[in-house]
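User: My collaborator sent over this chain with a note saying "see what the structure looks like." That's all I know about it. Can you take a look?
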Amino acid sequence: MSYPNPGPYDPPPGQQPGYGYHQQPMQPQQPQQPMASYGPYPGGPMPAAQMPYPTVMPGGVKAARAMLFVLAGLNIIGLVLAVMGLGGVTKASHEASSSPYADVSAFNVGKGVLIAVIVLIVIFTVTAITLAAQFGNGGKGVRIATIVSCVVGMILSLFTFPVGLIHTVLGILVLVLVSKDEGNAWFNRPRY
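Assistant: Without extra context I'll predict from the sequence alone. Here is the result:
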């Protein structure tokens, strides 16, 4: 089929304008994305579904915080008992040193062990109180420090098994509650 060409620069009849001889250079077309029938942006990509960040401390995190305060209270009770034990060992050491047949080296070892225990108790008490106080506004670092503190505390409490069982159980509970999804969401929330 041939079309009569009225002008040398006009498009042939029957074609749409823009498909004949062009006055301007052709612009490359951008690939079109398929239109989405859902979402807040028609034609745009769907935003990833995000869990809303909690604005109030979840119950599990509150329970973990309370358990840290309970651990600190138990540590203070243990600290009082350790100081009383150190006083008793020191008094026995002084009484034994007046005897010419006494060996005081066992008392010195006992004092050294009790002083080390007192230092550890103080460190864990201060750590538990500080971490529990930071739960309200702390971030990932507070969560990680709580997990590390609980693991180390559980390992050390196994050396004092019958008495340390309470520390072990509370440490496991704090560890689980802080590691759950709601704990993760609480400590990873944006803070402005």
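A starting point for your reply to your collaborator: The chain has a mean pLDDT of 81.
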